[in-house]
Amino acid sequence: MSLDLLAFAPVLGLITQPVSVAHYLVVGAIMFVCGIVCMAMKRNALGVLMGIELVLNGANVNFVAFASPYLQGEGSRSLGLDGQVIALFVILLAAAEAAVALAITLNFYNNHATVDVDRADDLKG
Amino acid sequence: MPGIATFADAFLAAPLPLAAINWHSFFFLLFAFLACGFAVAVVAAENVVRMALYLVLSLGATAGLFFLAGAEFVGAMQLMIYVGGTLVLLVFGVMLTAQAPFVSIKGSGRDKVVAGVVGAVLLAVLLQAALSVKAWRAPAAGVVADPAATPIGMALVGVRVDAPGVGAPSRNVRPGYLLPFEIVSIHLLVVLVGAAYLARAKRRKTPRAIEVAASVEPPASVAEHAAIGRERSRGGSVLAGGR
Amino acid sequence: MADFLINTVGLPAWLAWTVAAVVAAVLILHVIAGGALVFIWAERKIAGRIQDRLGPTRTGGKFGWLQSLADGIKLLAKEDLMPDGADGLLFRIAPYVSFCASFCAFICLPFAFDVVGQRLNVGVFFVIAVLGLEVFGVILAGYASASKWSLFGAMREAAQVVSYEVPLGMCVVVPVMLAGSMDLVTIAEKQAGWFTNWFLFHDPFTFVVFWIYVTCAVASVNRAPFDLAEAESELVAGFHTEYSGLRWSFFFMAEYGSMFLVSALAALLFMGGWNGPIPVATLVGLSEGTGDTAHYLVRLIGLANLLGKATLGVLVMMWIRWTLPRLRIDQVMTTCLKYCTPLAAAMFLGAMLWQIALPGGLVPVLHRPAAEIREGWLQGPGGAVRAGDAVSTGKPVATKVAKVEP
Any CB–CB contact under 8 A between B208 and chain A? Predict the structure, then answer.
């Protein structure tokens, strides 16, 4: 019985101990890397756009983690309001960029009858 | 109430995790697994409509993470603008371009391997950076006030209520965000006009490539293609209502 | 409730919070489910009366009380169909996405003073944000049904809901501006007293904004006259054509839940929420404080008030549905973008100027406390303190202690 508990101790620790900034940074890192891989791997232009959204979200998770007073206590070491406002601006700019990217993609689709980015080689030397 | 007392005692005597679940950590783990899991699902999925669904769920879980970290306004903003606006736009785009050949475009194997290696290396670097700072590993004690949206609103019109002071912006005197707020407002207006212009219906003398493609083969959705394929193989008429 | 469980019953803290959360969630779920049951019966009766007939009169007595139950049993017993070409995962998940979005918004909806699932400081914002997520269920349902008509209906409905979020947001900002907070409890609490305190009667601009809100809310939940996406005469049944049985009933629970939600939101934002037109509790002498036992009765009166107002809103929506003809999709979009949005923006400007020019209102005896919250922040000690609480309710400002783990 004790051996089983010891084996699961790190996982159990995650549920009983409070989370801190490092946990949030890990989540942000995973989302960021997923976004990078998605941007690099997908041939569908909308897939690439989804990768961009994931990247921006990973960065936002980082900002909010640094801004949180619960994770670092007392607010003296956390970014506080600045981190949250930066995250807000990132969300706004991501929305603007997604709108333009979609307009470009739809234009590309109307002109070439495909959303495959590998076919966008008209300017290739 | 002796019955309840022994019940509570039984719980307290249970194995360690049951005795003191930190609900904040539990929900953090739940939202974190959802966010990361669906992010990985976005990468792994081939069907672009399912990718969009997984992205919606991943970003929704991220909003939950924001609420847990005490950034309630940012979390609500994430839900409204990112999930409710940007992703609806994305899903519209997916629907408009989800004609049969484009729903599942497979990438080449070589691309996947290179992307995977680069991603793994980047993840290792980021994780090492995230776990290396001791100060980030343990939350300190302290009295924390409830999160509120008023300081954010005040900061966006230039008044910092969390770190007020006079003088030049420095470590202790933090500036307001009035100028970036105005810039972003104009930026959004320009983007709105630009996107509407880019996506306008244009009058053309020669048909567009998409119309040429459409005249060759009637546009059909993925499902109809699948249904037609099944009909041909089965010899029955799916579209006419046979089950 | 968690404090009661910890102190009186003696449960450990983590278990007490779990029990409190589960009880709250089950209660809210019963509001939606029970509400849907009542509203389906009410809709059929109202539809019947408006069309000069009786409606259900056989199941369960003279008035057909058990008709909703009979409908529910019929839906449970129906065959579970899925079209051949449908995307299985998306087809199955769509009703639950829609229902979850509708249900999540009830989390921060207060039913009486401090009787709320989770008191969020950004309550109104959260509700509006989550209402906009219902559209994903609709789009998934339309796409996954493998039918052109479902897809058309879904796209139209998505375009309509997303477009109407803009004037809806602007209409909602006006009471937020008048109250000085996005917290739904605070907004409704500022309208305590006689019905003249209601934001509806605060200034003519807010009065007009209320009617724009009603229009946008009806369009947001896709009720007639804005229900083109479900129009039987055009698209069979729109996005839920291929759904039958229990899956279909989830869409309708989501729709009735959303109707109740926007009505309750209108009551909270404009019509005083749980404060009745006549402050019975204050006249009788009961107090609202949490210390004494009479506050349970006050909460009960408040709950009855809010449920009554929300139900009235739903009944008015049903009345409108069976009276007015349906709008075409281009008329729907025209109403939103050419009429509702500029009008809402102009009314917002007017309400703002009214606040600046006549802060005491036309009749200066009325209470105008919105500026107190902002002033409290400016004069505060520099920490993030919820001055709104201290100023308006007299309760001590809540603080949290971060967990100490060496």
Answer: yes
Backbone φ and ψ for C401, nearest 5 degrees, come out as -105, 125
Rounded-to-integer distance, Cα A83 and Cα B66, Å? 12
Q: Tell me what pLDDT residue A43 has.
A: 87
Tell me if A73 and C402 make a contact (CB, 8 A cut-off): yes
Domain locations in chain C as residue ranges: 1-77, 107-122+157-239+256-359
The residue among C366 and C319 whose pLDDT is bigger is: C319
Tell me the average pLDDT across C298-308.
89
Using alpha carbons, list the distances in angstroms from residue C283 to C62, C277, C286, C395. 40, 12, 8, 22
Put simply, the answer to whether B88 touches C162 (Cβ < 8 Å) is: yes
Quote the percentage of chain A above a pLDDT of 90.
46
Q: Quote the Cα angle for B212-B215-B219, to 5°.
A: 105
Of B40, B48, B138, the CB nearest to A44: B48
CATH code assigned at B87: 1.20.120.1200
User: Lowest mean pLDDT: which of B200-204, B238-242, C205-209?
Assistant: B238-242
Asked whether B144 and C383 are in contact (CB, 8 A), the reply is no
Q: Say which CATH number the domain at A30 has.
A: 1.10.287.3510
Mean pLDDT along residues C366-391: 49
A interface test, pick of C166, C385, C400, C403 with most A CB neighbours within 10 Å: C403
Q: What is the mean pLDDT of residues C62-76?
A: 87
Contact B95 C151 (CB under 8 A): yes
What is the rounded distance in angstroms from the CA atom of residue B145 to the CA atom of residue B161?
14
Beta bridge partners of C399: B145
Residue that is written with structure tokens 């796209």 in the block: C155
Residues B210 and B196 in one domain: no
Q: In the predicted model, is pLDDT for residue C281 greater than 80?
A: no
- CB-based contact, A6 to chain B, within 8 Å: no
Q: Kindly state whether residue B113 falls inside one of the protein's structural domains.
A: yes
How far is residue B33 CA from its own chain's centroid? 13
Residues with Cβ within 8 Å of residue C398, at least 6 apart in sequence: B145, B146, C386, C389
Name all chains with 3 or more CB-CB pairs below 8 Å to chain B: A, C
Clarify whether residues B46 and B92 are in a common domain: yes
Which tens digits make up the pLDDT trace of B95-107? 877 766 666 677 6
Report the residue from C11, C17, C403 with minimal CB separation from B139: C403
Give the Cα separation of B231 and B21 in Å (integer): 55
Chains with 3 or more CB pairs under 8 A to chain C: A, B
Return the structure tokens found at B165: 């002071």
- Distance from C-alpha of C186 to C-alpha of B162, rounded to nearest angstrom: 22
List the one residue out of B139, C385, B138 whose CA is nearest residue A69. B139
If pLDDT is split at 50, 70 and 90, which confidence band does C290 have? low
How many H helices and E strands in chain A? Answer: 6, 0
Which of C212, C234, C306 has the alpha carbon at shortest distance from C268?
Answer: C306
Position B54 confidence tier, pLDDT thresholds 50, 70, 90: very high
C155 pLDDT higher than 90: no
Name the DSSP letter for residue C327.
Answer: P
All partners of chain A with 3 or more CB pairs under 8 angstroms: B, C
Q: How far is A98 from chain C (nearest CA, A)?
A: 16
